[in-house]
Amino acid sequence: MSDIKSVKKLKIGIIGCGFVAKEYKLPSLSKLGNVELAAFCDCKLERAQEYARTYGAKDAKTYINYKEMLKDKSIDAVHIFTPNKLHSTMAIDALEAGKHVMCEKPMAVNAKEARKMYEAAKKADKKLSVGYQVRFRHDYQHLKQICERGDLGEIYFARAYAIRRRAVPTWGAFLNKEEQGGGPLIDIGCHALDLTLWLMDNYKVKSVMGNVYHKLANRRNAPNLWGPWDPDKFQVEDSAFGFITMESGATIIVETSWALNTVDTGEEEVTLCGTEGGASVKQNQILRLNGEKSGELFVSVYRKPAKEVESDTDKEARLWIESISNDTPYIVKPEQTLVVDEVLDAIYESGKTGKAVYFGG
Where in the sequence is the domain holding 214, given as residue range(s)? Predict the structure, then answer.
């Protein structure tokens, strides 16, 4: 790794000045005293200028061409907030320019592009991570400790759940197959799958079966949280489901949808079942543990602290910057997020062919 410890403030370049950057990530980064938001790039220069004024350092630069920004040798790391199709190209260019890279989820538009990113990071000897910030939520941090202690025993069944009743994102590139690579599976399903694999600490996949649906997308003037979608532009799936068998024999079921006729909704939800106990986290951030003790079955509840010192995005930003400054491992590793993309690809492929996709060998 390059000697970055001598730098008082890490200089960060931002590529893509959209909703996620504005509402979640930039406020967290701007709180850190050892960070300088030094450059902003967007396809609309006026938007880059607006973000620079709001979040940037006094002399922050703005760009419409990210490659020009990458020429600035003073920039230590780059954060990418663009449509999925651009993740791989931009990340690889940044890595080759000597920058550390934090890319928004998913890692890439498909597993092939994700692997290119992973290989580029190894070759450049730079840090690469993906914005799976839900791992940093208090409930999942607590559950991870429980799993690491072995309290659940061998986890042999899990459920990754990300279901909306009618909440199709109708803005930006969400419905564009070429730009995004897919719909709810790659948009919200990836979070639930990432959490499940991480909590289980199991990334060795044996096979994947999947079904992918485009059942409600053709409806016009359909009730929807963000207004009716345009069926002519709805190119991606509205629902997808996967059945994953791990090399260990464990089973993971993935359920995800933007528009499903159900009232059992929730995102970023995980259920784990082990030989010694089980756990489930619902969207309300209540963690329920179950098992047996002294010959009796029990259920206990771990609730969100009344005063949470640090939000998930704040903790994500702090630990990411610390990993660069101190050259220490980061919690979201690219080899893990690559497996997430490989499983997503396999669900799409299986849904297309009707056959199982086998890993390895």
Answer: 135-311+340-358
